[in-house]
């Protein structure tokens, strides 16, 4: 991925960063809706109690559900802006596709949210709603990363990756296992699956992400663009494991003595969801930076029949 064909645009980058931050708030608001069991507090969609603009009664679970909708709506409007802005000002073709992908993803996210409400919170659809939401967050973070001064103006370091498997492959493994964990967690939170798959798979997540992070740090210690997200990923992984234990203890172990609205259960669960989103986004950043800065060696034939490493 090269950056020579486009120019750094400070306001374009700032808006991209702002959208990523607002999207993070949407994820937190959505986690609060689920933790407070407020998903059907507003029973219609796309209206709220029959109105598109007028606020519904601001009481109980309506506060969580309608706030989530309002922040999500604002994020959608901002995404339309950044998508068309990127299409017209950014000369990189892949960035244009990424922006259009962001727009398509948030449209799908809105539709899934509506289907979730209209069909009374089916676990599979609710889980898809959560997964697509975090996918959009990752795309928003990627756009913010790739519109930044460091990405656009600095020449990437083309360093050979001699490891096996390649670091880029490990990054993709990490994203895959995180998505599996996201689906297991979503199905559990929406009462479509027991807690066991999510808890058991946490071990795989810890092992693969630790392998990926340590490998990135050890192999490319002088490449800040690779080392920093790797360190951040490992740091977030440790926090996420502790939060997972806290969420499990408050939600599962002590179920008889805890109501769904208890503050410590809500805080630990929402924090677990939020840090999980940050962990996934950081892994995506590491993947982008690895793709940009490392070169996978390959053997290339030359006319006299010999082979060279390129």
Structure characterization notes:
- The protein folds into 2 domains: 149 residues; 154 residues.
- The C terminus is likely disordered.
- Strand 3 and strand 4 form a beta hairpin.
- 70% of the residues lie in helices and 4% in strands.
- The longest helix has 31 residues.
- The strands form 2 sheets. Strands 1-2 form a two-stranded parallel sheet.
- Helix 3 packs antiparallel against helix 4.
- The protein starts with 9 loop residues before the first helix and ends with a strand.
- The protein has 310 residues and is mostly helical.
Question: Gist?
Answer:
By secondary structure, the chain is mainly alpha-helical. 70% of the residues lie in helices and 4% in strands.
Average pLDDT for all residues: 89
What is the count of structural domains?
Answer: 2
Helical amount among residues, as a percent range? Answer: over 70%
Strand content: under 5%
Biggest sheet descriptor? 2 strands, parallel
Spell the H/E element sequence.
HHHHHEHHHHEEE
Number of strands: 4
Q: Report how far the terminal alpha carbons are from each other.
A: 18 Å
Q: What overall form do the CA principal axes indicate? A: globular
Q: What class would the helix/strand composition place it in?
A: mainly alpha
Any idea what the radius of gyration is? 21 Å
What's the arrangement of secondary structure elements?
Layout: H1 10-35, H2 61-89, H3 93-118, H4 123-146, H5 149-153, E1 159-161, H6 167-189, H7 196-219, H8 224-253, H9 263-293, E2 294-296, E3 299-301, E4 307-309
Parallel strand pairs: 1-2
Antiparallel strand pairs: 3-4
Helix pairs in contact: 1-2, 1-4, 1-9, 2-3, 3-4, 4-6, 4-9, 6-7, 6-9, 7-8, 8-9
